[in-house]
Write a structure and sequence with these properties.
Elements (H helix, E strand, L loop, with lengths): L3 H10 L15 H43 L8 H4 L5 H30 L1
Helix pairs in contact: 2-4
């Protein structure tokens, strides 16, 4: 069992001399501008992919509804919302991933812009 004194000795001996990170201040201005433009373009590209994923969501729901109608032949004219079915979590995550990444890329570009202007 480690006593309190031994624990203090261990913790004091493991202190590191870490220099503060310079981050983006090391990069030249042209590199920051290129990075911001690339992130904005990636964000726009992800929004384009999100449009495609919305179409995939509707086709997935249509397939689910077709299977539901095959399993329940008495109910012919039924809407997806009234069946009680839902988009599974993994499908929802897969189809909403481009939107999430678009927000992340745009946020990082804005942070870089603010840090660049701030100096």
């Amino acid at each position: 069992m480690i006593s309190k004194n031994n624990l203090n000795i261990i913790l004091n001996s493991t202190q590191f001399d870490v220099e503060p990170s310079k981050g983006l201040s090391v990069l030249p201005l042209w590199a920051k501008i290129i990075l911001m433009i690339a992130l904005v373009l990636l964000s726009l590209m992800m929004i384009f992919f999100h449009r495609n994923s919305k179409l995939k969501i509707t086709s997935f729901k249509e397939k689910q509804l077709e299977q539901y109608i095959k399993d329940n032949p008495r109910q012919k004219n039924i809407k997806y919302e009234s069946t009680g079915m839902y988009l599974p979590a993994w499908q929802r995550a897969k189809y909403n991933f481009p939107l999430f990444m678009s927000v992340v890329f745009l946020s990082v570009a804005i942070v870089i812009l603010i840090l660049t202007i701030k100096g």
